[in-house]
Specification:
The protein is α+β, with helices and mostly antiparallel strands. Helices cover about 30% and strands about 25% of the residues. The strands form 3 sheets. Strands 4-3-5-6-7-8-9-10 form an 8-stranded mixed β-sheet, with helices on both faces. A 5-stranded mixed β-sheet has the order 12-11-13-15-14, sandwiched between helices. It has a two-stranded antiparallel ribbon with strand order 1-2. The structure holds 1,6-di-O-phosphono-beta-D-fructofuranose.
Length: about 325
């Protein structure tokens, strides 16, 4: 198989999709560079004392890990120059960073520098998630950030596992790239399709006291053997959304972080619209899967602020459709 680099793939994209500009190619290459730098630091973090908490907390009151802060700084460093990005919003920053108040930059970027932070000090699977929007006009006060997920022109994630992989959704296709020892991302899977159904399910059942009755019934249903196969669904939860979704992208299944009507602090669940839900919803939909809040597409959610949350049911079309049926059953 001829090895195609990330840049070669993006340049080919540029020739076939109007949305894919030279600047967007440059931007995705920079995000890939951030991934290489973060992967290198993660690999040696237990030897270099980079594990553990920083002295700061984020806007959600969560203690920040040193590597959360490091990864956030790496992104800001590599997004700020060249006038491509006007604003960068991060899960780890209360306020988005405006690089060009005069509206020079054509793109806005939202990112979660380290997804699965709880896995940081235990060598578990980790990720970085990103979403890219094109600015519609210099006068936009929010630089086009607080818009529906359908405004994203590209999205994806980095997975820091046994291999470091980059998954990019752009120009109607989802592609997987693997980091080679030469320090280059090579295409490893093209035109990725998310299977219509699948056995894996990822949900933190420890939270069920906070769920709706319909969600509890749905998760109970997942454990009942399928009449056709005699097999129930299989629990696969790693405490890393990126790690769990990467399995589902290739094997099918469903990741669920539902609404929590039982918890006044997080009625919409834990996950953030701009940094987690919108980007992965774009990857899922572009690969033929779905992302739902339980009552509608996640990509149609318009966040009221930069730290808004929404419920997430993500994965195979059949599995997400079925979850919506359970949620709708409460209405009947
Ligand atoms: P972070 O971005 O802070 O890591 O939060 C997201 C996340 O860690 C997901 O990756 C994971 O699926 C989920 O939260 C775990 O939450 P819980 O501890 O409630 O199961």
């Amino acid at each position: 198989m001829e090895q195609v680099t990330l840049n070669e793939h993006l340049l080919a994209e540029q020739r076939s999709h109007a949305e894919s500009t030279e600047e967007l190619t440059e931007l995705i290459n920079r995000i890939a560079l951030c991934g290489k730098i973060i992967a290198q630091r993660l690999r040696r973090s237990t030897l270099t004392g980079d594990t553990g908490y920083a002295a700061t907390s984020n806007v959600y009151g969560e203690r920040q890990e040193k590597l959360d802060v490091f990864a956030n700084a790496v992104f800001l460093r590599h997004l700020r120059y060249g006038g491509i990005v006007s604003i960068a919003a991060s899960e780890e920053m209360e306020e988005p960073k405006v690089f060009s108040p005069d509206g020079e930059g054509h793109y806005s970027v939202s990112f979660d520098p380290i997804d699965g932070s709880q896995n940081l000090d235990v060598n578990g699977t980790l990720g970085t998630i990103f979403g890219i929007r094109r600015r519609r006009g210099a006068q936009e006060h929010d630089h086009g950030l607080l818009t529906s997920g359908r405004e994203q022109v590209a999205a994806g994630y980095l997975l820091y596992g046994p291999a470091t992989e980059l998954v990019v959704a752009v120009g109607g296709e989802v592609t997987i790239f693997t980091l080679d020892d030469a320090g280059e991302f090579f295409r490893s899977k093209d035109r990725v399709r998310l299977p219509e159904r699948g056995r894996p399910y990822a949900v933190n059942e420890g939270n069920q006291a906070r769920w709706s009755e319909e969600t509890r019934k749905y998760v109970q249903w997942l454990k009942t053997p399928d009449p056709k196969t005699g097999e129930p669904h299989a629990t696969r939860y790693s405490a890393s959304l990126v790690g769990d979704f990467h399995r589902i992208l290739q094997q099918g299944g469903i990741y669920l972080y539902p609404a929590e009507p039982g918890d006044p602090k997080t009625p919409n669940g834990k996950l953030r619209v701009l940094y987690e839900c919108h980007p992965l919803a774009m990857v899922a939909e572009m690969a033929g899967g779905r992302a739902s809040t339980g009552s509608g597409d996640v990509l149609d959610v318009v966040p009221e602020d930069a730290h808004a949350r929404c419920p997430l049911a993500l994965g195979s079309k059949e599995e997400v459709d079925r979850y919506e049926e359970f949620v709708r059953s409460s209405a009947s």
